[in-house]
């Protein structure tokens, strides 16, 4: 079920940068009032100024910040879970506190925020949840924890979808490939593959917002990445071989 965005209230986490900032701008261009969430006050203010949105400076993994975002989410028609970070490197050497922090940011915080937003959406019989997962949800070597968190997000979205649909609330999972943002600096390894080619954050934002308006459950960006998902489902051994050959 698609949502008319004109006059809708949206909350976007991770909106101070990259994909989240682009989604916030796109939602505003479609007529939403947008609350932008991030931790870097200056970057957040710039992103908010660019779309006449309201900045909410908060860390979603910390108590006070979480409560502030949860309060905003409980009033929202659209909640976009975009705050996230990666880690690339040897899993056996990954610091345990980094395992916990990544899981908290990429998986637990979106689950808890959904828990905060859903009762209001179901009561009003209107709402849309957007999860920015990743093609890494299919499983990427050297990004095991990130892959698990993004797969968890995708599975959670699919599981909560039925309950949502009964109450007039829709769910979209977005699975981007490589996107040109500061994400790669944060994960500790630059993007060094020729394939798939990087896309711009605006391409992800356009696909995500279109999916909200058309009520789509899952979108891959670029779209052809869906082939990897289908091959993995139908022929897991072939997928493993192809992933080994082509990364
Ligand atoms: N770039 C890619 O290739 C790619 C591909 C697939 C999926 N994704 C996913 O897309 C999402 C956005 O990533 P991006 O590429 O746009 O990276 P980005 O430019 O680094 O943006 C990450 C955003 O998350 C926010 N954030 C990080 N920790 C936070 C915290 N504790 N509390 C609140 N906000 C926090 C950051 O805000 P502050 O810095 O202000 O805290 C920033 O706005 C992530 O979930 C990522 O996993 C990215």
UniProtKB/TrEMBL annotation:
A GO molecular function held by the record: oxidoreductase activity
Pfam families, per database record: adh_short
The keyword Amino-acid biosynthesis is annotated on this UniProt entry: no
Keyword set, alphabetical order: Oxidoreductase
Family membership: Belongs to the short-chain dehydrogenases/reductases (SDR) family.
PANTHER family, A to Z: DEHYDROGENASE/REDUCTASE SDR FAMILY MEMBER 7B (PTHR44196), DEHYDROGENASE_REDUCTASE SDR FAMILY MEMBER 7B (PTHR44196:SF1)
Name the UniProt record assigns to this protein: SDR family NAD(P)-dependent oxidoreductase
